[in-house]
Amino acid sequence: MHDPVLTPVRVPPLANELTGSWIRRMTARYGLPAQDLLRGILAGPRRVQVTGTPSTGLELFLNTSARAQLTRFTGLPLARLTGLLPSLATAHERLVDDEVARAAWYVPRRAWVAACPPCTGRACPPGRPVLVYPEAASHVCQRHQRWLLAHAENPVSIPLRTLPEVLGAHRRHLVLVRAHPWGADAVALAAAVVWSWQVQGWQSEAVWQDRVRRVAAVMGCSPTAVMPHALLPYPETIAVARLLVDHRWQQRLREAAAGDGLHDAAGLFLQEAGRRINRPWLTDWLTARTRVSRKDAAAGDPLHQWLQRITAATGITSDGLWTLNRTEVRPIEYSDRASFLIHSRPRTVCEEAKAAFLTGGWEPLPSSQPGHTPCQ
Ligand SMILES: [Zn+2]
């Protein structure tokens, strides 16, 4: 039996693209349904099973047999495809791995965004954005000054021209994740720390109020819809993350804890964090809060837990330092965050945020937690 004559694919996948996005782009120029192309790729002497359709799930998952068929069809080696398309690199637990070529359209297992149109240019047919996983820090296009949002049909984004502090934070975020193997975990921990402050009434302080107004103005939505979005505490999150990974500061905190105890080490950290995020009142404010609720302050405080680990006599290195309890993490779902931050009409606000595509996209997650999918 002869192999079919194969033509190398003319539409190559982009880095971190959803496999479903790539298959759709391959067919969009010819007006061909993606499902027809998929069935054509998998057609062979053996049985084929396709679950779902491109309208029931944005992402395409393939078992080993189907992946082999895809490499044969495209003429691209599997290692190249898995290097570019994250969903091909790991098996989906619902997809049986046997001799039958199986494909399934499911909801993506990680947060995704519509890539920046000027950057994807010719790869992007009209009305069909390239959908990508932003991973640790690709949720902002520095060149075109956009915070990329999750919309499968339109490349929506938040313009950042009036938000220079967000662009500055993103530049530092890129440096952080490149320089530190645990950079994404440090950002997730910092997000939990800032969240623990935000839920205590910080949404009414001046710096965030000003940022909320600027985001609401460019997005044409109400300020409350912006409040639970990852952009709002982003500059503070990155500033705290940089302090957390700073070895010199870690050593200072150990010395402070050894001399004067954990409480003083926490005070030292908060003083420096307050200085860096332009809230000189941070230490005093948190001390006052702690007096009100001393028990809660230590038990569910991610900063306190981290300080305990960093100052432990035995010393904890690498991954152990960035562990987060489930109760400490910043909620992944927009609606969960809204229920903490918005006290009147949270349901109406969620609907408005959904219409503005503020409910999906990038979230600060630990690197070991790829399975979470913020709602779209
Ligand atoms: Zn761009």
What do these coordinates show?
- 48% of the residues lie in helices and 7% in strands.
- The protein has two domains: 88 residues, no CATH class; 195 residues, no CATH class.
- It is mostly helical.
- The N terminus and C terminus are likely disordered.
- It is built from 18 helices and eight strands.
- Strands 1-3-2 form a three-stranded mixed β-sheet. It has a three-stranded antiparallel β-sheet with strand order 6-7-8.
- Zinc ion (ZN) binds next to helix 6.
Rg, nearest Å: 23 Å
Coarse morphology:
globular
Bound ligand species: zinc ion
Number of domains: 2
Question: In whole angstroms, how far apart are the ends?
Answer: 47 Å
Q: How many strands?
A: 8
Topology pattern, helix = H, strand = E: HHEEHHHEEHEEEEHHHHHHHHHHHH
Helix content: 40-55%
Number of helices in the DSSP assignment: 18
Average pLDDT over all residues: 87
How much of the residues is beta strand, in percent? 5-15%
Low-confidence stretches: 1-6, 370-376
Structural class: mainly alpha
Largest sheet: 3 strands, mixed
Question: Major sheet: order of its strands?
Answer: 1-3-2
Oligomer: single chain
